[in-house]
Design goal:
The protein contains one helix and 26 strands. It has one helix spanning about 270-280, and strands at about 10-15, 15-20, 25-30, 40-50, 60-65, 70-75, 80-85, 90, 95-100, 105-110, 120-125, 135-140, 150, 155-160, 165, 165-170, 180-185, 190-195, 200-210, 210-215, 220-225, 225-230, 235-240, 245-255, 260-265, 265-270. Bound molecules: manganese (II) ion.
């Protein structure tokens, strides 16, 4: 694999916070509101994962969004999406739903299973100010449409967004330029993964199985299971080491450097725009 002149190291480790959302779905909020400026353009990352139906069965009934994009990556289980734009879709094992809320959408996200494991991530990605009021859109990407790069050393990389070793991902977004990789270390021996990354882009790694090490010139740092490792903005890439069933997502993007004002499911640039969003929702103008 290619090497980098200078690879990033870990700046901070973040322990997610247990919370619930929707009609009472238990989840871990990994990227919380206080990190929105540090991790611009990313606004939120939730990990949901439970084999107990009571933790997820109530789902996320009808609720609105405005001003950003939601990216749901299902690792296991089935979830049904319905929205006010008339879109419907079934998210399942390995698939991704990329929803651009734009000026507004009302949708529901409900488990389509009564038992078994439901596991995945929901990432919120901001929209640049000039696109916050764009028409809503929706993309259902089934698992077989996500490009995979199978390296000789047993590292398999699913390229959800951005580009990995000349392989373009399923989604490209020019303004925020998101990179979203799901990295599987399949070998029993320790194997290297590398990715080119501009120092300007904010980036983090979240290990959801096993253990991964972040290798920079000076040190090797463990990225522990179920924690977010925020990477320093430095160098020109990142190198990870993992083995036997270690799995991690690597997420990076170009910051928008615009004011972020969030109220629940609305993320805009000013307080006035938030008040407008609430008025529009109450008046039924979001659907
Ligand atoms: Mn939602």
């Amino acid at each position: 694999m290619s090497t980098h002149t200078l690879s990033r190291s870990i700046e901070t480790l973040i322990q997610g916070q247990a919370t619930s959302d929707g009609a009472g779905v238990k989840l871990t909020r990994v990227l919380t509101q206080d990190l929105q400026n540090r991790l611009d353009p990313f606004l939120m990352l939730d990990l949901f994962g439970s084999g107990s139906a009571n933790d997820y069965i109530a789902g996320f009934p009808d609720h609105p969004h405005r001003g950003f994009e939601t990216v749901t990556y299902m690792l296991a289980g089935r979830m049904r999406h319905n929205d006010s734009a008339g879109n419907t879709g079934l998210l399942q094992n390995g698939g991704v739903q990329w929803m651009t809320a734009g000026r507004g959408v009302i949708h529901s996200e409900m488990p389509e299973q009564e038992e078994g494991l439901l596991k995945g991530f929901q990432l919120w990605l901001n929209l640049p100010s000039q696109q916050k009021m764009c028409a809503p859109s929706y993309q259902d990407i089934q698992t077989e449409l996500i490009p995979e790069v199978k390296h000789d050393n047993g590292v398999v990389v699913r390229v959800i967004a951005g580009e990995h070793h000349q392989q373009k991902g399923a989604v490209q977004k020019p303004q925020t330029n998101p990179l979203y990789l799901d990295i599987h270390f399949l070998s029993d021996d320790t194997a290297n993964f590398s990715q080119a990354l501009s120092a300007q882009h904010n980036a983090f790694v979240f290990v959801y199985s096993g253990e991964v090490t972040v290798v920079s010139q000076q040190k090797k740092q463990v990225a522990p299971l179920n924690q977010m490792a925020i990477l320093k903005n430095e160098g020109d890439g990142v190198v990870l080491k993992g083995r036997g069933n270690a799995r991690a997502i690597l997420i990076a993007g170009q910051p928008l450097n615009e004011p972020i004002v969030q109220y629940g499911p609305f993320v805009m640039n000013t307080k006035e725009q938030i008040i407008q969003a609430m008025e529009d929702y109450r008046a039924g103008r979001l659907a």
